[in-house]
Amino acid sequence: MSVHKDITKHSTRQNQLVQKFMKLDEERERAIDEAVKLCQAGEAFTTDRINEATREINTLARQGVVPQRKTVTVEMVEEYAARLNLNKQ
């Protein structure tokens, strides 16, 4: 019975990590979308919110359950926004 409880505890912990990852990844994607829209509009933006979520995700990833994400630079956002603008033309 102890093994069953240990397995259940482990599975529950992994599920919690995955759920937290999904929430942080959604937050990160929203922050990326916002930064891209600001960039396309020629307004000032930062990658602070994106990279805060990235740091939290990468902390979770060290536990081996979820994937890591790359840190996003201002240049990366600018390049992506420029590609989107070219595709609109």
From TrEMBL:
Name by which UniProt lists this protein: DUF2533 domain-containing protein
Species of origin: [Bacillus] enclensis
